[in-house]
Amino acid sequence: MPSVILRTSARPLLALMLVFSLYLLLRGHNAPGGGFIGGLFAASGFAVYAIAFGRRAAEAALRFTPKAVLGAGLLLALVSGLPAFLLGEPFLTHLWWSVLSTALVFDVGVYLTVVGAVCAFLFELTEE
Amino acid sequence: MPFTALAIAAAIAAAAPLLLITRLPPAVRGWAAAAVPFALFVGFATMLPGVAAGSIPTDVMRWVPSLGVELAFRVDGLSLLMALLITGIGAGVFAFSGRYLAGHPRQGRFLAVLALFMAAMLGTVTSDHLIALFVFWELTSLTSFLLIGFKGESERARAAALQALLVTGAGGLMLLAAALLLGQAAGTFRLSEIIAAGPALTEHPLAPAILVLLILAAFTKSAQAPLHFWLPNAMEAPTPVSAYLHSATMVKLGVYLLARFNPVFGGEELWTGALVTAGTATMLVGALLALRETDLKRVLAYSTVVALGTLVMLLGLQDPIAATAAMTFLIVHALYKASLFLVAGIIDHETGTRDATRLGGLARSMPVTAVVALAAGLSMAGLPPFVGFVGKELLYEAKLTHPVAPLLLVGAGVLANAAMVVVGGILSVRAFLGTPRGLETTPHDPPPEMLAGPAALAAGGVLFGLLPGTLGGWLVEPAVSAVMGSAAMGSATPAPLALWHGFTPVLGLSVLTLALGIAVFLRWEPLRRRMERWHLLDRHGPERGYTVALGGFQWLAAWQTRLIQPGSLRVYATVTLAVIAAATAAPMLFGGGIAVPAGWLDLTVYEAGAALLLMAGAVAAVVARGMLAGIMAVGVVGFGSALVFLLFGAPDLAFTQFAVEVLFIVILTAVLLKLPLREPEHRTRGQRRTDAALAVGVGSVGALVMLAVLASPFDPTLGAWFGAASVPEAHGRNVVNVIIVDFRALDTLGEITVLGLAGLAALAILKRRPQAPQGGA
């Protein structure tokens, strides 16, 4: 049985780490951060949660299966390269509209893939 | 407007909403599912006048220009003919499946895969780039695998799906090899440029290899004897799949490939010889085996084998009449065969059986279906005024004009076509007009969306039969000019299509075929029973070869796996590390690679501190007694590395290292909870010495490599370029992230694909299986 401290702190920790991971993801293009690191931080949050409350609870907290998350990530990354074709540019040429860009979509794809892949390992290895 | 690329994209995009089709009421699903294929059919049909007039719409999109990879689509007469078959028959099949599988919980997935298949088919027949052609070709094999194995709970379906994948997948690998060699020999991967170069390519030393590989790829896909056996087995798939993939479109891809490369290799004797021989053999084998079966679908499958053999044989004849016959028969066969398959599906749906010996007199209860079946069946039998008659007349004409062995070809043709008469008769005349044979259920005509496809196809057979000139001018002639190459077409005009040629030898052959067919049809049942007893065919046929080869391959795989994968982590680690160390050390020692940069020991206090931390962690990991302490010590090494990254101005790397390290420890701890925390030492003293020596060796080699790298002058070109281009070209000041998501985005896409696959593999391997009841605590 995990300690009271862990069980008390896991929930706010998960929320904090998710927020922080999103912060890392969004600032990544101009400052240290990005999809890879953000994804790893988010996955760490779920790891702490899984240890505190067990696998079933962590799966519920993720809402989607790891398989779906990583699949969505790969799909997003792939799709982000397609709009370039409309302008006659090569695949994965990113387009920008002030701060929004297909590069961000790509990075979100990286983020989700990392979260999904790490959670796939994590949940299968965590005891109920 | 790049219509072809948009059409393929639309077919792929249609897969997602189709997944949700089960939310619609069953009565509208068919129409909803058919919307996209039908729209694409109309779109391609609008290209007909232009293509018939000789224009060839081409779209080129840059894909990875730095690697010379591009997406190029080109729609000439042959491509357009195929695209129209794919989308037109597709519309009928989608409408049919919307109702046919309405009771199936995975109907959405079925239709989604079918849409992906359609996209892959369109890609294959319109690609003007060899690599893209290969990729789309393989996607058709993959979707075919998923569709044959759709009823995955049936072992026969799984085996048939695997068999089809292995046979056509082997052919796909040959196509890849052929594509690479072709690209090398021709200096371009663009199909149109290769075709334009024409027979000049056959002078290249690689040409014979290319030729053989292309032929083998085509023969596996188009089920030529002796590789025909996967096709009848593929009938385990739901009937719409059999109609769409395994009679009308996918199995024609081999024919398409041969037709496409005919302008290049048509002059080679090996090409014509192989095509005529294999095609004729396939015709005869299919005709013989078709008459043994009772399952309507397997009967039809073997008759498809006959048709594919006929097409391949015709392409080998190298004659404008033969090419015209081939393209006409391609259309004719697609029309009647898809229609008959869907009728077989209707019969199955309504009566609950596909056993031809139990069916008869269905016309009374299913009048509309009966009309459709008769129209398609009589077209198959080659009776006027159906288009099947036009096709068969051309077949005989092409064979009669062949200079080498007209009698042999005509003889084989009469036998094969007589078998077609029998099959057409079994499916239409016998099942619908024959004597009723007492079924438990009362069949009815199915709802309109199930009849729409087969009825439209059968109507097309009548319409083209009455207006053969339209068929010829709009569809056949443009395709023939692609098959024969523009040079050959300058001198010869394709044979005109006509319903009535007058009293010619060809008409005599038609009458002979029909008489033979009817004679066999009337005695089909006793004949079939006798042929069924030819067990020799089952015991020594090529399928037996497949089974033996597969078994042998599995034995080989098991043997070599036992040899090099003993399952001991210690052995793996030892071998891997020893090989790495030896392979790195050898060139350094013998090639004079050892170098030490000047002043490598001038450390700041912080650097020395980080180095000490790393060393302390490493030593602690080695001497730690318990598992937990060991993992903590390894963690110290990881955090120490992160510290080094931070000191040398790589915050992103340090960040990632920290996060990975945390996760590593968390996951390991989760695993460790299942293991004894204090594993007793089970290595002998000798083993411990060897391990220590190996560890020191690997570490030393690593250190030497690092020193040598630092000693060589640093080339800042790339770093400077990325630093300068980061903001103006990619709008980002974090160069690391800009490289990941923009400059090297394709690499990243590859990496996260690997990461995703690793995650999926973890799910598959670690997934807890239902556990056996456990004894004890």
TrEMBL record, chain A:
Membrane topology: Multi-pass membrane protein
Main location: membrane
Intracellular or extracellular location(s): Cell membrane
Pfam families: MnhB (PF04039)
Annotated Na+/H+ antiporter MnhB subunit-related protein domain residues: 5-119
Swiss-Prot/TrEMBL keywords: Cell membrane, Membrane, Transmembrane, Transmembrane helix
Domain of life from the UniProt record: Bacteria
Segments crossing the lipid bilayer: 12-29, 35-56, 68-88, 94-123
Protein family (similarity comment): Belongs to the CPA3 antiporters (TC 2.A.63) subunit B family.
PANTHER family, A to Z: NA(+)/H(+) ANTIPORTER SUBUNIT B (PTHR33932), NA(+)_H(+) ANTIPORTER SUBUNIT B (PTHR33932:SF4)
NCBIfam families: PRK12509.1
Entry protein name: Na+/H+ antiporter subunit B
Source organism of the structure: Azospirillum oleiclasticum
Taxon lineage: Bacteria, Pseudomonadati, Pseudomonadota, Alphaproteobacteria, Rhodospirillales
From TrEMBL, chain B:
All residue ranges annotated as the MrpA C-terminal/MbhD domain in the record: 612-676
4Fe-4S among keywords: no
InterPro entries from the UniProt entry: CPA3_Na-H_Antiporter_A, MrpA_C/MbhD, MrpA_C/MbhE, ND/Mrp_TM, Nuo/plastoQ_OxRdtase_6_NuoJ, Proton_antipo_N
Domain NADH:quinone oxidoreductase/Mrp antiporter transmembrane: 127-401
Annotated MrpA C-terminal/MbhE domain residues: 688-770
UniProt-listed Pfam families: MbhD, MbhE, Proton_antipo_M, Proton_antipo_N
Localization: Cell membrane; Membrane
Domain (NADH-Ubiquinone oxidoreductase (complex I) chain 5 N-terminal) ranges: 66-110
PANTHER family: NA(+)/H(+) ANTIPORTER SUBUNIT (PTHR43373), NA(+)_H(+) ANTIPORTER SUBUNIT A (PTHR43373:SF1)
Protein name from the UniProt record: Monovalent cation/H+ antiporter subunit A
Organism, scientific name: Azospirillum oleiclasticum
